[in-house]
Amino acid sequence: MTTTELSVLLQALGRAHLVDLSQSLEEHMPHYPTHSKFYHEMWNSYWHGDSALTYQLIMNEHSGTHVDAPAHFISDSKANAHVTIERLSLDRLIGRGVRIDSREFRAGESVPMSFLVAWERGHGALEADDIVIFNFGWSARWAPRPKSAEYTTDWPGVSMEAARYLLDKRVKAIGTDTLSSDHPEALRTQPIHPVVLEKQVPLIENLTNLENLPDFFLFVALPLKIRGGSGSPVRPVALF
Questions:
Q1: CATH class of 18-239
Q2: What is the H or E stretch that residue 134 is in?
Q3: Strand runs (DSSP E) across 147-200, as ranges?
Q4: Domain map of the chain by residue range?
Q5: Peptide bond into 146 cis (omega under 30)
Q6: Which residue, of 25, 43, 126, 231, has the fewest CB within 10 Å?
Q7: d(CA 118, CA 230)
Q8: Per-residue model confidence as pLDDT tens digits over 159-204
Q9: In terms of C-beta density within 10 A (0-12 exposed, 13-18 middle, 19 or more buried), how is residue 110 classed?
């Protein structure tokens, strides 16, 4: 990138509207039932005579807004596909974001391929390297315990045929504002997770503020560099 190109990029970024797409990490926040919980414990404090304030974090790799690496569902018996989070190419999470308004779908329902085809006719074609984000409106249900059950008991998801359609389109990543891109019944029977992740397409879950986005925008999210990690919390942002 030349100095002139860098200057143009910085000017464009300076004019862009920025939206935070991440949930706040806090104790008692929603989490997948089998995942360990999030803890935020004071370790040092100037209130207790220390020179600085620090906290210790204990969390699951899939706490809050996070990204699933292929290793989350693909075992090391498939060496080429078993990619852990520190090996995931960062450009997988930087690119043109596409918001698919899917708020008509209810808990337990899946977005069919026909819905995506119809969306493209009205909004524009999905392209290779897009980061496709499904806006179910589910983040409105996000709440800490004891009010988290509505978010964590059931939710809508992405159908297998829709997932395969996106893979055929060669998208970079898929995101949702739900606890999982698969609704609970799909997770038990025919989840898209192993199919999508084996193709090295990461899944981003527990997004928020999607209602504030246009159809197309710049999406950026960077994971923690966890050696051998199956995923990582992220703080994704949209710029437009």
A1: alpha beta
A2: strand 131-135
A3: 157-158, 173-176
A4: 18-239
A5: yes
A6: 43
A7: 34
A8: 999 999 999 999 999 999 999 999 999 999 999 999 999 999 999 9
A9: buried
